[in-house]
């Protein structure tokens, strides 16, 4: 059945092994971020077998899937208070920035006889989650009074929202804040987490500030590239995930629709370039399944014309392959397309 994503477990494991060994040389342990593939256990196990020491996900539902895996589990998205009971039960660590949530986590942890480990997030300019640097001292002074939790680390998010690139200055400031809090409040810090795959370029260039001992890798593991500048990394596979879709119509048609143009199904007014008569293949998947802007056909002579909810239209005019109805077309995916494909229940997932 199609569409489907084929996942090469050996390549995924090799990517994890490459990054784990690279990081180990610099005294860094890595978290394998599983949210993009909804923490499918078989894929998560491949990361662990490759050398990942922590599994991290934004959704507690995904960590629950992995409850039987013997690995440290981290909740990446700062917890909702409504899920506090599940967080302390199924996550060994969570990232936090709100005192009231910490109080609730502590209370729920004590109810089940646990101490929940927390990583305090510091906002260094990307303006997503995090404590403002000037407020960290006062925050820690209050947080250490909360029973049932233990502050074991500090972290930062960069690039995901504001596009701020990690560098020696902002990551150096994170280390400075963490060390200052460690000394002032006698904290036993396990983790100073210097960001995600956008920090990989600093590691490769041996520029990561001393003191950073943890990185959270998602896209680098899955797609083989760092995300500060979008460069693929030598030694990493970029084809771990292959999307296959089936052709359901193949006809020659004009390249510009006929009639007055209004809004499409998504409220946008489309624009078309007149390329004359085009050999067009429709494959049975659409925006409900994938992000068409993040699809890259393996047949380099194919281009993507557009997509509606359930159909994606391809220009196969110049392809050397003689496609026919029932054939499949293969794609590699950028992060957004992979995220949507792995989340869609209409896209089958197969390991190879």
Automatic annotation (TrEMBL):
Domain Alanine racemase N-terminal: 7-222
Pfam families: Ala_racemase_N
The protein's name: Ornithine racemase
GO cellular component, one term: cytosol
Cofactor: pyridoxal 5'-phosphate
Keyword ATP-binding found: no
Cited SUPFAM superfamilies: PLP-binding barrel
NCBIfam families from the UniProt entry: racem_Orr
Originating species: Caloramator australicus RC3
Keyword annotations: Isomerase, Pyridoxal phosphate
EC number: 5.1.1.12
GO MF terms, alphabetically ordered: alanine racemase activity; ornithine racemase activity; pyridoxal phosphate binding
PANTHER family for the chain: ALANINE RACEMASE (PTHR30511), LYSINE RACEMASE (PTHR30511:SF3)
């Amino acid at each position: 059945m199609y569409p489907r994503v084929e996942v090469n477990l050996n390549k995924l494991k090799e990517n994890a092994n490459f990054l784990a060994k690279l990081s180990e040389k610099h005294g860094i342990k890595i978290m394998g971020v599983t949210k993009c593939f909804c923490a499918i256990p078989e894929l998560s196990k491949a990361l662990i077998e490759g050398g990942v020491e922590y599994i991290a996900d934004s959704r507690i539902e995904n960590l629950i899937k992995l409850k039987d895996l013997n690995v440290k589990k981290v909740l990446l998205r700062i917890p909702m208070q409504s899920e506090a009971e599940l967080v302390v039960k199924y996550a060994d660590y969570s990232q936090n920035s709100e005192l009231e949530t910490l109080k609730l986590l502590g209370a729920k942890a004590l109810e089940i006889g646990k101490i929940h480990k927390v990583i305090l997030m510091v906002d260094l300019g990307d303006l997503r989650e995090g404590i403002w640097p000037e407020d960290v001292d006062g925050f820690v002074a209050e947080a250490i009074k909360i029973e049932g939790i233990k502050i074991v680390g500090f972290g930062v998010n960069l690039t995901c929202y504001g596009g701020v690139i990690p560098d020696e200055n902002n990551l150096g400031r994170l280390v400075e804040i963490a060390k200052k809090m460690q000394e002032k409040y006698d904290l036993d810090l396990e983790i100073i987490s210097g960001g995600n795959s956008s920090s990989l370029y600093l590691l490769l260039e041996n520029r990561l500030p001393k003191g950073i001992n943890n990185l959270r890798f998602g896209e680098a593991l899955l797609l083989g590239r760092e995300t500060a500048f979008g460069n693929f990394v030598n030694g990493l596979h970029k084809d771990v995930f292959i999307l296959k879709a089936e052709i359901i119509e193949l006809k020659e048609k004009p390249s510009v629709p006929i009639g007055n143009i209004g809004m499409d199904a998504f409220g946008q007014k489309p624009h078309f370039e007149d390329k004359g008569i085009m050999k067009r293949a429709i494959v049975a998947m659409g925006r409900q399944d994938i992000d068409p802007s993040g699809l890259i056909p393996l047949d380099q002579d194919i281009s993507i014309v557009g997509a509606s909810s359930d159909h994606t239209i391809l220009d196969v005019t110049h392809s050397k392959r003689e496609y026919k109805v029932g054939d499949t077309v293969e794609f590699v995916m950028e992060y957004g397309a992979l995220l949507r494909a792995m989340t869609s229940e209409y896209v089958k997932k197969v390991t190879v």
